[in-house]
């Protein structure tokens, strides 16, 4: 009798477990089916994914932007896909991208306060910032002529430049240190605490003149408070800290990676452009004085070369996700509230309707007026664009120009004999050269 009762209870338990499991599976399948049908009816077209994980398993790690480009060729300039539980709208052409980049309903983070303030006067108007960059570059360049170099763009140098420009820290050959384990991501995690400490120190100092980013921002904040000026932009310490992190990101790894592509790959691969840039240096700057950022206005080939490196190397394959704060339209396509929208800059930078022969490296595509002027088109956006554009873009542009020109002015650059020059890239947060061959920098003092 006891055995029959035990078997009966086990059967009931097994049956109950079976019923619950079947019900849960059915519920999940129905939910997935309803979600899929809803997506097919309301969202842009796109590939099917798997339950729960969406299309993620089909995206190649570190090359997602190329998979997104491949999907654009099949589904068109705007398509949708699932990434886990999230709906993602991918924009792959400039006409729709410029609409996304200026849409206030696609805001991923607080608007960065950079434009229209004394802060900008410091960033772009003070020659002291150029002087600081050149001073630090001058300390670093002699190291390049001491044998094969596998790191011609030393990360600690770029870090030091960015931190000092924002915080007024003393330059001592890359001595600015952030207390964090070795590694870029670890530094980013440590930045908020480090920067808040600097903000607190600047507040105690209460300088009437400003020599760095924090001073300028705090003075503008005080002026707005005293004059009761309102703004749609949150003008607080949280925004200041966010700006500083963004500036550091743009001016640190972004700058060093762009320069690595420019110096290691493109100048070495295409020596004819090295000679043209050096020719401009000879006629505009000479070999006695140091370059100044204002020299760029008379150096169209140099600027066109930098623009083409931005386009061809494209360190930012896709922009950061922007969340739709309400139901909206991108062109004729519906974007539901909560959906993520990304712009695939890789596809835009290789669009044959925007660039003739986009797979070729050709700086002359940006030259106008018989080669006397370099024009950067609006669809070339290496630092993203719009209100969510990177506030550190101005810093980055100055550093890239001064560093590149300073090196070409002083050195001939060649690969070490027997080394292989590869354009293969690795992509995590940004797109980097997968391998860096040793370079030989030969000091030259006059035009050759």
From TrEMBL:
Name this polypeptide is given: Cytochrome P450
InterPro entries referenced in this protein's UniProt entry, alphabetically: Cyt_P450 (IPR001128), Cyt_P450_CS (IPR017972), Cyt_P450_E_grp-I (IPR002401), Cyt_P450_sf (IPR036396), Cytochrome_P450_fam2 (IPR050182)
Annotated positions binding heme: 390
GO BP terms in the entry: organic acid metabolic process; xenobiotic metabolic process
GO molecular function: heme binding; iron ion binding; oxidoreductase activity, acting on paired donors, with incorporation or reduction of molecular oxygen, reduced flavin or flavoprotein as one donor, and incorporation of one atom of oxygen; steroid hydroxylase activity
PROSITE patterns: CYTOCHROME_P450
Superkingdom classification of source: Eukaryota
Cellular component GO terms, alphabetical: cytoplasm
Pfam families in the record: p450
Cofactor(s), names only, from the UniProt record: heme
